[in-house]
Amino acid sequence: MKNDQEELKALQLAIADRDEMAFRQFFERFFNPLVNYAFTYTLDRTMAEDIVSELMLVIWSMEDKLNEIKNIQHYIYKATKNRSLNACAKKPTYQHKATAQEDSAYLSPENILISKESHLEIQKAIENLPPKCRTVFILIRDNQMSYKEVADLLDISVHTVNRHLQDALKKLHNKLIK
């Protein structure tokens, strides 16, 4: 954990110094996890990708101001959450229309074995989770964040993170068993 934070701080400093390779590493490391996180709020992959792309552009444009950020990972997740909520507020009547092809681009290796119909059913069940449960579920299961990292990010206790994850798993189990 300590080495990871040191590595992120080194990337952050290099990006502030306009190092394109460092930015490319940062982008590749965080783009998909942030898109998945934004998706928990927007329920729209294209919108989530746009939000994260714009955030990455802001990060690149910050230059020296980037050095003032104490925890870059916490910052980008908070910024993604805020931007996602703002985007949803601007488009309250937006309807999510995911296609099987669109979803297939984000399948993990184990999900490739699941039929497209089952995968869509699972995605729909995840989308129908309460927002906090869905967010916690995706951050832990898809983004492999620890309970502590999720608790810090969402400003809730580790116990509450555990409760949200257990609720999510129970609801998914009940929905998918039917």
Automatic annotation (TrEMBL):
> Any signal peptide, and if so, which residues?
none
According to the entry, every stretch annotated as the RNA polymerase sigma factor 70 region 4 type domain falls at 120-172
Alphabetically sorted, this entry's keywords are: Sigma factor, Transcription, Transcription regulation
Record's superkingdom?
Answer: Bacteria
What InterPro entries does its record include? RNA_pol_sigma-70-like, RNA_pol_sigma-70_dom, RNA_pol_sigma70_bacteroid, RNA_pol_sigma70_r2, RNA_pol_sigma70_r4_t2, RNA_pol_sigma_r2, RNA_pol_sigma_r3/r4-like, WH-like_DNA-bd_sf
Q: Does the keyword Transcription regulation apply?
A: yes
Where does the record place a coiled coil? none
Domain RNA polymerase sigma-70 region: residue ranges: 27-90
Q: Does the keyword Endoplasmic reticulum apply?
A: no
The similarity comment for this entry is: Belongs to the sigma-70 factor family. ECF subfamily.
Name this polypeptide is given: RNA polymerase sigma-70 factor
